C-alpha cells in the first residue's frame, strides 16, 4: 500500500464522521443564529442580525436559565469542590474499606441520568416521598417542602442531585492529584516539623493546582451543558424556574419551532464555555507567576 | 509507588465517610426495595424490607412496557457503535501518534477541540442533517452519531497509549514489507488491547445511557432505548410505582455489572486517563 496515502486514508473515516456530524453542525448553528426560521423546510430563513441575541438578553426567562447555570457553578465551587476533595482524602488514605468506599462513591457516575432522575424524583415527592416522610418522622415538619414543585427550591434540588451523581467523579480528579505528590515531599515536611493544618494549606494545596484547574474547567463547562437531569426531573419547571440553557434550547427549538433563537442559545452556550475556559486558564497562569 | 499517606483520618472524616456512603447508596437501595413492593407499601413504609416479594412488578415491567426490548436495543446499539468506534479510532490514533506532520497536528487539534464543544449547540443543524439523510428511526444513523460524538475522548485515550508503543516494533514490520494498514490491524491493535478496552467500556456506558439522541431521532416505540423507555414509563404509569422501580433495576443491571467487573478501566477512562490506581 502506498505509504504516503495510507495515513490519510486511515485518519479519514473517523475524521470525516467527526467533521460532518459534530463540527459542521456547530458551525452551522453559529451562522444560523443570525437568522429566524420556523423549521419548515420550505419556509424562508430571514436574516435578522442580532435580534435573537437581543431577545435572549431582554427576556427574563433566558436570563434566568443562564443564572441557573451560574447557580450550578456556585454550587460546584462552594459545595461540590470541598465534598469531592474530602472524598479524595478519604479514599486515598489507607483506612480499612477505602477501596469499597471508592467504588461506592463512583457508582452513580455510571448510571443512566434518566434512572437517577426518576429515583430522586420519587424520593423528593412532597407527600409520601421518603425525604419528607423522614423529616416528618424526626419532627422537622417545617423543613418538608415541595422540592421539585416549588419555584424557590426546584433548581437547588436539581443541583443537589447533580452533585450526588458527580461527587465520585470529581473525587477521582482530586485523588489523582493527591497520589501524584511524591513521597519525598511528605518526608521532608516531617523533617521540617510542619504539622497538620500548616502542612495541608502550604504544601498539599499548592501542589494540587492542576487538579483544581481541571475541576474548575469541568465544573464550569458542565454547568452550562446540564440537560438530562433537569429535563427528566422537572422539565425546566415549574414556570421555567429550573430551566438551564440546554433545556431552554430544547424547548424553544423543538416545542415552539423557534430555531433561530435555539441556535442563538446554542451559540451562547458555546461562546460562554470557551470564554470561561480561557479565563480559568488565564487566571491559572497568572497565579503561577 | 503509592505510599499510604494518612493511616488514620480522624473521627470527623470517618463519620463523614460513612455518612456520604449512606447518602450515595440510599437511593439505589430504596429503588431495589421498592421494586418488590406495591404502592401502599412503598408509601407507608419506605425503608421496610419487602414482604411479600412482589416479583409480579418485574413481570409487568418486562411484559407490558417493552423494557426488555429497550434493554436489548440499547445493548445492541452500544455494542455495534463501540466496535466501529474502536476500529476507526485505532487507525486514526496510530497515525496521530506516529506521524508528526503539519496536517496531523491540525487534525488532532480539531478533534480534541471536541471536548470543548457542547453537544446541544449542534442539535438543531444536526436535526436538519438527519432529516435530509432520512435518518429518523434508523439505527445506522444513531450508530454514526454515537461514533462521531464519542470520537474525541476515544482518540485522546488511544493516541496517548499508542505513543508509548516502542518504535522498534514498527521498524521490524516495515523491513518485512508490511504496509501501514496491515501493521495496524495485525500488530498495533492487539498490542493496544488495554486502552481499547478502557475506551470501549467508557463509550459503551455513554451510549447505553444516552437520552438526547434517542429522544430526538427515534419515534417508533419498538426502537426505543433504555432512557426513553424509562421516561415514557414514568409519564404514563403514574399510578403503579413498583414496576417503574423494577424497570430501573433491570435497565441498570447491565451497566452495574460492567462497572463492578471493570472498575479500574471505567474510572480511568471516564477521567481521561487521569487516574492511576
Task: Describe the 3D structure.
The complex is a heterodimer of chains A (289) and B (277). Helix content of chain A is 73%, strand content 1%. Chain A has 289 residues and is mainly α. In chain A, helix 1 (5-32) packs across helix 13, helix 3 (60-92) packs parallel to helix 7 and helix 3 packs antiparallel against helix 10. The radius of gyration of chain A is 23 Å and the shape is globular. The N and C termini of chain B lie close together (10 Å). Chain B has helices spanning 10-34, 39-44, 56-64, 67-98, 102-112, 119-132, 139-162, 167-175, 180-191, 193-208, 212-217, 226-236, 241-261, 263-270. Chain B contains 14 helices and no strands. At the A-B interface, helix 1, helix 3, helix 4, helix 5 and helix 7 of A face helix 1, helix 4, helix 5, helix 6 and helix 7 of B.
Unreliable stretches of chain B: none
> What separation lies between the terminal Cα atoms of chain B?
10 Å
How many DSSP-defined strands of chain A? 2
What kind of assembly state do the chains in view correspond to? heterodimer
Order of helices and strands of chain A: HEEHHHHHHHHHHHH
The secondary structure category of chain B is mainly alpha
Number of helices of chain A: 13
- What is the share of helical residues of chain B? over 70%
| Shape label of chain A | globular
Query: Mean pLDDT across all residues of chain B, rounded?
Result: 86
N-to-C CA distance of chain A? 51 Å
Our estimate of the beta-strand percent of chain A is under 5%
**Helical amount of chain A:** over 70%
Would you list the SSEs of chain B in sequence order as H and E?
HHHHHHHHHHHHHH
Largest sheet strand order of chain A: 1-2
Largest interface by Cβ-Cβ < 8 Å: A-B, 95 and 96 residues
Amino acid at each position: 500500500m502506498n505509504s504516503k496515502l495510507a495515513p490519510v486514508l486511515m485518519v479519514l473515516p473517523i475524521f470525516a464522521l467527526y467533521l460532518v456530524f459534530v463540527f459542521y453542525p456547530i458551525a452551522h448553528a453559529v451562522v444560523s443564529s443570525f437568522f429566524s426560521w420556523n423549521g419548515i423546510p420550505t419556509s424562508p430563513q430571514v436574516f435578522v442580525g442580532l435580534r435573537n441575541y437581543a431577545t435572549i438578553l431582554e427576556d427574563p426567562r433566558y436570563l434566568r436559565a443562564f443564572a441557573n447555570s451560574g447557580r450550578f457553578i456556585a454550587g460546584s465551587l462552594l459545595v461540590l469542590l470541598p465534598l469531592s476533595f474530602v472524598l479524595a482524602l478519604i479514599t486515598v488514605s489507607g483506612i480499612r474499606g477505602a477501596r469499597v468506599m471508592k467504588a461506592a462513591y463512583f457508582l452513580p457516575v455510571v448510571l443512566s441520568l434518566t434512572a437517577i432522575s426518576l429515583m430522586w424524583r420519587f424520593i423528593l415527592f412532597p407527600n409520601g416521598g421518603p425525604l419528607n416522610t423522614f423529616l416528618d418522622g424526626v419532627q422537622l415538619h417545617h423543613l418538608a417542602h415541595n422540592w421539585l414543585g416549588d419555584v424557590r427550591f426546584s433548581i437547588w434540588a436539581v443541583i443537589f442531585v447533580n452533585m450526588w451523581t458527580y461527587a465520585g467523579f470529581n473525587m477521582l480528579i482530586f485523588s489523582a492529584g493527591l497520589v501524584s505528590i511524591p513521597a519525598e515531599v511528605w518526608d521532608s515536611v516531617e523533617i521540617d516539623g510542619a504539622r497538620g493544618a500548616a502542612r495541608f494549606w502550604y504544601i498539599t494545596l499548592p501542589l494540587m493546582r492542576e487538579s483544581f484547574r481541571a475541576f474548575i474547567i469541568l465544573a464550569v463547562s458542565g454547568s452550562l451543558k446540564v440537560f438530562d437531569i433537569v429535563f427528566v426531573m422537572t422539565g425546566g419547571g415549574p414556570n421555567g424556574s429550573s430551566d438551564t440553557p440546554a433545556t431552554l434550547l430544547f424547548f424553544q427549538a423543538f416545542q415552539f419551532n423557534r430555531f433561530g433563537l435555539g441556535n442563538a442559545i446554542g451559540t451562547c452556550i458555546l461562546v460562554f464555555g470557551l470564554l470561561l475556559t480561557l479565563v480559568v486558564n488565564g487566571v491559572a497562569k497568572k497565579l503561577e507567576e | 509507588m503509592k505510599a499510604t499517606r494518612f493511616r488514620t483520618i480522624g473521627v470527623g472524616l470517618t463519620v463523614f465517610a460513612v455518612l456520604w456512603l449512606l447518602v450515595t447508596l440510599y437511593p439505589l437501595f430504596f429503588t431495589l426495595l421498592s421494586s418488590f413492593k406495591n404502592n401502599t407499601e412503598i408509601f407507608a413504609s419506605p425503608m421496610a424490607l419487602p414482604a411479600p416479594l412482589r416479583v409480579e412488578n418485574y413481570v409487568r415491567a418486562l411484559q407490558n412496557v417493552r423494557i426488555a426490548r429497550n434493554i436489548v436495543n440499547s445493548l445492541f446499539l452500544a455494542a455495534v457503535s463501540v466496535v466501529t468506534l474502536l476500529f476507526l479510532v485505532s487507525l486514526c490514533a496510530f497515525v496521530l501518534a506516529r506521524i508528526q506532520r503539519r496536517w496531523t497536528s491540525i487534525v488532532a487539534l480539531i478533534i480534541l477541540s471536541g471536548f470543548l464543544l457542547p453537544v446541544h449547540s449542534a442539535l438543531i443543524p444536526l436535526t436538519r442533517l438527519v432529516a435530509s439523510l432520512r435518518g429518523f428511526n434508523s439505527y445506522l444513523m444513531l450508530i454514526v452519531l454515537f461514533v462521531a460524538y464519542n470520537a474525541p475522548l476515544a482518540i485522546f485515550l488511544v493516541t496517548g497509549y499508542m505513543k508509548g508503543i516502542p518504535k522498534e516494533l514498527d521498524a521490524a514490520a516495515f523491513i518485512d514489507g508490511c504496509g501501514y494498514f496491515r501493521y495496524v490491524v495485525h500488530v498495533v491493535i492487539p498490542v493496544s488491547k488495554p486502552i481499547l478496552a478502557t475506551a470501549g467500556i467508557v463509550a459503551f456506558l455513554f451510549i447505553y445511557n444516552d437520552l438526547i439522541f434517542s429522544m430526538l431521532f427515534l419515534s417508533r416505540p419498538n426502537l426505543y432505548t433504555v432512557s426513553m423507555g424509562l421516561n415514557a414509563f414514568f409519564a404514563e404509569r403514574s399510578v403503579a410505582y413498583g414496576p417503574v422501580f423494577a424497570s430501573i433495576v433491570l435497565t441498570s443491571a447491565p451497566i452495574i455489572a460492567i462497572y463492578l467487573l471493570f472498575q479500574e478501566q471505567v474510572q480511568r477512562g471516564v477521567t481521561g486517563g487521569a487516574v492511576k490506581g
